Amino acid sequence: MDNEIICNDPCPIARSVAFAGDAWSLLILRDAHAGLTRFDQFRKSLGIAPTMLTRRLATLTEEGLLEKRRYSEHPPREEYLLTAAGRDFLPVLFMIGAWGRQYRGGGKLVRFFDAENGTEIKAIAVDEVTGAKIGTRPIRTVMPEES
Amino acid sequence: MDNEIICNDPCPIARSVAFAGDAWSLLILRDAHAGLTRFDQFRKSLGIAPTMLTRRLATLTEEGLLEKRRYSEHPPREEYLLTAAGRDFLPVLFMIGAWGRQYRGGGKLVRFFDAENGTEIKAIAVDEVTGAKIGTRPIRTVMPEES
DNA sequence: AGTGTTACTATCAAATTGAAACGAACGATA
DNA sequence: TATCGTTCGTTTCAATTTGATAGTAACACT
Asked: Cβ of B26 and A13 within 8 Å?
């Protein structure tokens, strides 16, 4: 895919797709939200080839979803932490997970609970203005005027 | 990536990633939600090579997000319609779009409005039980017992 | 008869991926 | 001191995927 075209596309989905449209990046972000920070933790969790992991971590860092932090000077060691943009990606992961639970839900699945009151989390997307679930009301799409 | 491993992974995100983790598929689903149904409509909208489009449409059809319907017998012509699973993917697209609007929002962007009352849609993910935004409360993850 | 439309397939070069081995910098152990 | 283990990668190279271009099949229209 041509990233230059995508970055100027007026569709916000297309803008995100440059890295969201990649299985490894999504799984790395999932693991980062689960608390993993180090190269070998990701590698072992995902069974990913180190070449791939190096590239994906570099891309996610360049794109501003992760940041490298040195946690040891001798030897030099880095860890990867979520940035604000990376943390704000969590809703996307939850909605992907909710879809997978509904349509790919055979067998045992990991479950997520609200740590404070113990109820299982059921993620839904709503319009903050109307409160209606996304997809339950008709949508009007407005293209930007040519600049 | 190895799809066999992924399909038995207990993480619902990993289950979805087999096709959600692909830029073209996400953009095809976006266009399908915008009302496109035919091969050439997708091809022109996306600028995708026909080989790619054929494969992606076939995968999305096999995975149950689209279905082929014959709309002409002579000549035989098919169109691609969203299934229930495909329609239920809309919240994922909206959350991806919401992230892109916030973090990749330079220049003109397409905007989405509630067709009934005219307000702009602001998609957020919430826990249906507590009503809290996803990410604002601590989460406890529970792995399934070994079967 | 010739042109246009729609939905592809065929071919092939280029880019990406993934597996396996290797390396550098250290710390711990014998 | 020698060796092992850990961490975070790089190097190499074969296999797969990709994307660009061209071609095809079945018709409809003029």
From this structure: yes
